[in-house]
From TrEMBL:
InterPro entries: Glycg_phsphrylas, Glyco_trans_35, Pyridoxal_P_attach_site. This is Alpha-1,4 glucan phosphorylase. The keyword S-adenosyl-L-methionine does not apply. Allosteric enzyme that catalyzes the rate-limiting step in glycogen catabolism, the phosphorolytic cleavage of glycogen to produce glucose-1-phosphate, and plays a central role in maintaining cellular and organismal glucose homeostasis. Phosphorylase is an important allosteric enzyme in carbohydrate metabolism. Enzymes from different sources differ in their regulatory mechanisms and in their natural substrates. However, all known phosphorylases share catalytic and structural properties. It holds the Pfam family Phosphorylase. NCBIfam families: P_ylase (TIGR02093).
Amino acid sequence: MTADTTPPIATREHTVDGFVREFLRELNFGQGVDLTRASANDKYLAMARTVRHYLMTRWLSTLRRQGQLQAKSVAYLSAEFLLGRQLDNALLAADLQDIVREGLASLGIDLDELREEEVEPGLGNGGLGRLAACFIDSLATMNVPCIGYGIRYEYGIFRQTFVDGWQVEKPDDWLRLGSPWEFPHPESAVTVSFGGSVEQYQDDDGVVKRRWVPGWSVQGVPYNYMVPGYENGRVNTLRLWSAQATRAFDLQIFNAGDYAEAVRAQTFAENISKVLYPEDSTPQGKELRLQQQYFFVACSIKDFVDQVLPEDFDLHDLPERIVFQLNDTHPVIAVPELMRVLVDEKGWDWADAWSVTQRCFAYTCHTLLPEALEVWPVDLLGRLLPRHLEIIYRINDEFLAELREAYPDDELRVRRMSIIAEYPVRAVRMAYLATVAGTKVNGVAALHSQLLRDKVLDDFAGYWPDKFTNVTNGVTPRRFLRLSNPGLSTLVTEAIGDGWVTDLDQLRGLEPLADDAEFRRRFREVKHANKLRIADVLAHRDGITVDPDTMFDVMVKRLHEYKRQTLKLLHIVSLYEKVSTGKLAIGDVTPRTFAFGAKAAPGYVMAKQIIGLINAVGATINEDPALEGRLRVAFPANYNVTLAETLIPAADLSEQISLAGKEASGTGNMKFMLNGALTIGTDDGANVEIRELVGDENFFLFGLDEPQVAELVDRGYHPSAYYETNVDLRHALDLIASGAFSGGDRTVFEPIVSNLLNEDRFLALADFQAYVDAQAKVDAAYADPEAWTRSAVLNVARGGFFSSDRSMRDYIDRIWHTPPVPPA
Ligand code: 9GP
């Protein structure tokens, strides 16, 4: 027998005493303080580091096993990962919740107080980034090898504050107090270049080739994060890149004595990963953004090819070893980058390189708004990445030649499908490039995928019908039910066991309990407790008072006109107007708390106006004694993942009221459903599937559907006609215009009113009456608590489809073909 020479991996003792010993060691040796003098932050950091030790053994053995097996992996390329707080998830994955609570209590420390010390990394804008975080959680839990690649922004999504009701952005300094969940590896930094020019040269065989002579470079330093699977021994890796000046560059200038210039060079390089672009759905055509995109994909490809793969790996086998999933168009520049690596650096011929590249990528589109499909002017691209632009031109030339063969008599169609747009400026259409390069293109909900096929990418779908598929989004049940709603989790587990945590379809087992009066009573108790919990959070966090005995009617999402927060506002203002003028007795109004959460992109003027109006309406209504506290608006600033985790479980009504055909999917809608809220919504995004699953009788559908919207727009939409003919709508708009919510100043909200009356791009006025009618049905349904609870239970029971584990199964079956690799 030969001795096992594999070095052992350290383990930790999974007991209260073991934890306490480790924790004190971290506090004393890691933080350099003793318990009596330790600040809350010291204790939090020591606890977090102790907890991560418990996951380390799993992480190291996952990496070791992956090194041995070289199983096919997913590389999820995403400019955003909106992780949320890490501690609770780590405790859950490592089955440490009780041990840590007890261990800390034995030292007189309250776990819940320490939890509040954690600052969430806001490395994403909203749904897209949060989806990426859910996906990597699911892949780890399902034992699928995955590495997430993204950017370690020094400043994440801005911290929103309100000053006199108006949004004021503050920097999100999430790293200030230390970041215990990351592992920097400066020794593994990679160099990424920009600018310069392309030169022609002859290789050793006299073949004329082209290569890039870059103008300047930066370093990408990897920071690793653990992505633990739920109680399964696997920990995958998320690798986020931070930009730094290259040492050579730095030293050269420094040695020449120009300290100021050296610092400037450093700042210039570090700017690349300095701040997340706070845009959601609309791209900012900024050079820095393209730098960010290229920076992280170039680092990631280099990392994968040079560090992750074994030295002797034959890159011709790359498609059997990896699939690079392009999360929206942000990482699409990875396509020409892989071509450049294979052709220029590895010396492959073009056809070989293209054949491998085409089999390595797949593309997810997350939008339907034409303005959100990124397009890079060739001037900019050519300046920043001249060799990549050449490669894109060649990809396009060959693609157009192929199309001309397929459609010899249809040059118009060929031009429509060109990766290069000619108007208004010559530019690269990144979605087209991704479609041409990817094995598959998917939308994120059934309706969205259909509209992609039929409208946005219809020429491509006609040419490659099999390339297009759908994967409906999902959310992780670990974070968004098990952790965020302990009351409901316990109730569900008591009823059907805890298998649902990793197999959410098991929630179906709750269906019969919808008819069980005792179960419904306990379900209501949980909801009420969740309302008390959020009331407490809002009181302390925001100084906002809410009444837990009212219906919680919640609209939380980015502020965007297509999402139609204004429609919600018109409903509130209309109710207020009717009560104030005596048309409606306050006693007949269902007591409601209207909760909003929404950040507006800093440069999106109309969105910021709407925030001002929500706060102004809230301030007026909340202080009007005539309403007897029956209607209140609660708009906490800085809605984020942490707040979502307490707010969503308390909701009765989920507002998903985007204009049909505009919201690709939505994922908040799924979180609400799983937490027992009923949806009022349009036939849009994943609402369509929610309604199909839960049934019409448990969903408040209203408004135009997508074909009706298209028809109305084609016919010519005149919002003012609705104003003229609908008295309630007129009164509501007039009240806003009168200055009633702006201290009599009629100019303040005039832009919103006139935009609605004259343009109303997202047809809020057309859907107003249908929305108000649907809200009347909500009131009627809510008046019968037993029937309402029955519907709420059925929403939970039928929500299993929206697990991100199911989304991952669909990606694996339809796109990735990456089988699970159970731990050794
Ligand atoms: O707007 C979509 C949202 O509907 C979807 O749920 C989310 C995740 O797929 O992606 C959003 N898209 C973007 O943020 C930008 O394309």
